[in-house]
């Protein structure tokens, strides 16, 4: 099993086979538009632009499970990200990352990065680094700025 064996609907509702990202290093992030960490969209986009042309991708998964900080629908989320942060990396439809309705990709990511306090995602902007083969390498806390992950990404590229 690896992270690229799943499917997910993009922000426009089109089912995407994550196998298309095989051969690339990916940073998978659960996002929210009304969170104290929302400005990380700027760092994510800067990282995405900085590594353009490299085998690298960022996948954003909006989630409303933490204090309802992603209340909008897909169109609201897409517009917010484009207008406020110029986001060009792929966004997916809003999902749950914890609980019985958690998206299967996040169940897998959590299982692969269990910590002392279990495997649940603690908050918005938790980041998962996945290598070219789909192996989950590391989980980063919401407080970690995406630009601080660049060195780890470059080691995998």
Question: Would you write up a description of this structure?
Answer:
The chain has 157 residues and is α+β, with helices and mostly antiparallel strands. The protein has a single domain, classed as Glutaredoxin, CATH 3.40.30.10. It contains four helices and six strands; from the N terminus they run βββαβααββα. The chain has a four-stranded mixed β-sheet, with helices on one face. Strands 1-2 form a two-stranded antiparallel sheet. Strand 1 and strand 2 form a beta hairpin. The radius of gyration is 14 Å and the shape is globular. The protein starts with 6 loop residues before the first strand and ends with a helix. This is Glutathione peroxidase. Pfam families: GSHPx (PF00255). Keywords: Oxidoreductase, Peroxidase.
Which secondary structure elements does this structure contain, and how are they paired or packed?
Layout: E1 7-9, E2 15-17, E3 25-31, H1 40-50, E4 56-62, H2 74-85, H3 104-112, E5 127-130, E6 136-140, H4 150-156
Parallel strand pairs: 3-4
Antiparallel strand pairs: 1-2, 3-5, 5-6
């Amino acid at each position: 099993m690896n992270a690229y064996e799943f499917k997910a609907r993009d922000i426009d509702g089109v089912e995407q086979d994550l196998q298309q990202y095989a051969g690339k290093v990916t940073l998978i992030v659960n996002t929210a538009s009304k969170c104290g960490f929302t400005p990380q969209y700027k760092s994510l986009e800067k990282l995405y632009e900085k590594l353009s042309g490299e085998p690298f991708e960022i996948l954003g998964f909006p989630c409303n499970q933490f204090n309802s900080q992603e209340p909008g629908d897909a169109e609201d989320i897409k517009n917010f990200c484009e207008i406020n942060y110029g986001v060009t990396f792929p966004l997916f439809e809003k999902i749950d990352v914890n609980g019985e309705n958690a998206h299967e990709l996040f169940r897998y990511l959590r299982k692969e990065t269990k910590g002392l306090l279990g495997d649940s995602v603690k908050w918005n902007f938790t980041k998962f680094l996945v290598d070219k083969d789909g192996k989950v390498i590391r989980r980063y806390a919401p407080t970690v700025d995406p630009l601080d992950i660049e060195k780890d990404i470059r080691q995998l590229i």
